[in-house]
Amino acid sequence: MTKNEQIIHYIKELPVGSKISVRQIAQDLEVSEGTAYKAIKDAERKELVSTIPRVGTIRIENVEKKRIDKVTFAEILNIVEGQILGGHEGIYKVVHKFVIGAMSVDEIEKYISEGDLLIVGNRDDVHKLALDKNCAVLITGGLSCKEEIKKIANEKKLPILSTSYDTFTITTMIHHAIHERLIKKEILITEDIMPAQVCYLKENDKVLEMKRYIKRTGHSRFPVVDENLCVVGIVSPRDIAGRDDAEKIKNIMTKDPITVSLNTSVAYISHIMIWEGIKMVPVTENKKLIGVITRKDVIKGLKHIRKQPHMAEPFEDMLINQSKVEETDKGIKLTGEITPMMLNDRGIASAGVLVMLMSTAGSVAIKKQKNLDSVIDSFMIYFIKPLQLENKVEIYANIINIGRKFYKVDITAYHNQEIVSKAMMSAKLLRR
Asked: What are the CBS domain coordinates in residue numbering (predicted)?
């Protein structure tokens, strides 16, 4: 075990809320302060510790990322641009619910319970009541609290926060922040689908070792790393075909491959895989390999996320679901009408919305025929005539050219049997 790993393990064993300093770590584990500093920064990236202004570096609980409906007191502190007056050891506990204390003490007592955050002004009796009920407190208007309250908060490890904003403003800020967070979490990202196990080869490994590795793991493509586990290439069966078993991987690998991070959206990865014609991308952090994503992982992830009941409906799907879709000999016919949400500020159908509707119709036509997802490679629109509210629209998406990887679709929009828009779309298929 390296010194860095020893320090990380030491930090993991510390109780949540413990203060951590470079000097103390260096003394306790008999390492240099430089080594201690680097390990603490690594621990911060792993979300084992966090640095809070005017408090210091604190051991925190690594809150499970999948709990998208929960926030911590630390996140609230950041949202309201506040400061912590006491109880800093509980700053990374999860907030159960928010309660606004604009009522009498007796009424407040009915609504609060353990783990809540009470939003209130400078009311000492209410502050004490909240702490007695194991609730945290957010004091509005830039006000503070008595030293006695701070002492109780420290003993109970319940945060007392303060912000300069009024109650209405901070509740609005919190609502917007949580809503945005939920939207972001609905976007499927790399870490949501990345397999736990990662198989890789080293640049000095030989072709024979790769052949053995293929048999042992069942995989055919591997990222290639250097001695520091930094990704330097990718190797596939095509690269080793006809090569001598003694030849080193670094001589035949594809160098400088495309990589993604843990926060890369899966939709972006699927586009990259199609455009670049690749079936696997390494996942890196600070250039070091931490995982791989294959085309199978992407397809499985996209299918899974569509089945989730909490998912917001994409705008394209809303447009399609408000229309009638019929299959034709050459593709599909989409029938609908111009609704208020399609209008621009001048009261006519937005050109962007109409283009989106036509391109989505093209994608649906391909999906109906091949049951495969596709990515638009090019979309050329020749003209658009204005449409008004409640105008009936018929869109014909006709597949006119089929290749092994490409589809071409002719798309025409009609109103009262008159052509109002025409486009040509080229798309690539996302194959398994």
From this structure: 193-251, 253-313
